Amino acid sequence: xxxxxxxxxxxxxxxxxxxxxxxxxxxxxxxxxxxxxxxxxxxxxxxxxxxxxxxxxxxxxxxxxxxxxxxxxxxxxxxxxxxxxxxxxxxxxxxxxxxxxxxxxxxxxxxxxxxxxxxxxxxxxxxxxxxxxxxxxxxxxxxxxxxxxxxxxxxxxxxxxxxxxxxxxxxxxxxxxxxxxxxxxxxxxxxxxxxxxxxxxxxxxxxxxxxxxxxxxxxxxxxxxxxxxxxxxxxxxxxxxxxxxxxxxxxxxxxxxxxxxxxxxxxxxxxxxxxxxxxxxxxxxxxxxxxxxxxxxxxxxxxxxxxxxxxxxxxxxxxxxxxxxxxxxxxxxxxxxxxxxxxxxxxxxxxxxxxxxxxxxxxxxxxxxxxxxxxxxxxxxxxxxxxxxxxxxxxxxxxxxxxxxxxxxxxxxxxxxxxxxxxxxxxxxxxxxxxxxxxxxxxxxxxxxxxxxxxxxxxxxxxxxxxxxxxxxxxxxxxxxxxxxxxxxxxxxxxxxxxxxxxxxxxxxxxxxxxxxxxxxxxxxxxxxxxxxxxxxxxxxxxxxxxxxxxxxxxxxxxxxxxxxxxxxxxxxxxxxxxxxxxxxxxxxxxxxxxxxxxx
Length: 600
What we know:
single chain; mainly beta; 4 helices; 41 strands
């Protein structure tokens, strides 16, 4: 039998291929909250200071406008009212409690926030969240009206169209009442407190102070449906932590039939309160704001942004910068929320949770990074946060956030990354921004998008660790590694790697630490034209790693035998699998691998 030798050439896909450029139009929307509008097939993002943008593909964004309205004397809506007049009188006059119609207080949200004077509402309308209420057949906007001394409120506005005009219905939750030395107008009698917890001749003493370490600041709403169709709102910023309330699906306001016990209400460790609801994260004056909850693949995921939103770089101000998204999950919408190590989102004491001495609580899905792909140092992202998430109708899950940049001051833009669940059900973010990749959530669990030989090669590896020093504008930057065909990793880090057959999961051990994630193909940023293999993976500790392929495996090529049977040649690849397809130029192709016959 005549013997010949084959040289295995792993060349189906070059390390980086050039593809058609995608169109990326950027917008600046701070605190972006994303929602899908089905009739127009647009995704909208609403942000602070009336910012709004839309897109059909999560790549090409365009700024747009929305407007206020006001009920007129004939039952219609007067459009385009001023900011100052938009929140003065509630359109909702009654609500149902325990089966009876009761009077709803006519809360003047503008005057509440303006109680201390010298107030401009135009700079204090923060972080709206928009959702379509199926029972009301209305678009519901939950808006933060911020005041200078905790005297803030989250209010509901509704509209027939996603861009308005939105009409003020009433308050959902209010903070800052009865602060010592506050104007008399900041009385609980001017709020919905008695409607929520009962009539009182005097306010409980627990509410008269501790605005900061104990009670929530009523801003940054996130409204979502649970898997049974129940409506909820998380809210809060820094200080007293993140809280949650049950809403009424019929009118979008607070559900006044849902009651909450007072648990720890005389201490900073309060976890439940008759008025504020249930605490689900933070407390004790620790940082944490911009909560967002999304139900994905059997879990409710809670996103929180820790640290200060500024770009950083001020070595004299410890709180300047450090914004970073942390992730927890729960089986129920109101918690308890924990991370992969079982660390609870609710604190039991003050905790420094950002900066160089940061605690490791919450999944660090990613943070400041640079020199990634074709990035220059000036392109480096930092202080990413106040995100939203959407399980989109196209079968993908998107993370939408605002980011500042390494050398661009406080200027910011919106970025979008695709999210996936790893084998343990924890979320990992694609290592490059979304540019039209076709992989869906279902693809990850049902097919192997990239095979073993395509993964093999040289890589840039980036570790998103805790404790970046934002005062020095520290970035995570990549190192060089090689993923060898035999499942080992070498270079600036050592370890092993393997794929899960029939799925797109990858497991890595790097420096003795196990990471679980997914491997896909992506377009490198910011080139928009270079496509490569990329992975994202998570350690149980909460540390995330990203990688992208830069070149072929430098391991010496290997030879395998092939046999001639009668007049035909039968070839086998390096894995011992029979080669069955003849391609051009004498190259034999088997299951995506190319082998070339060479006599020796």
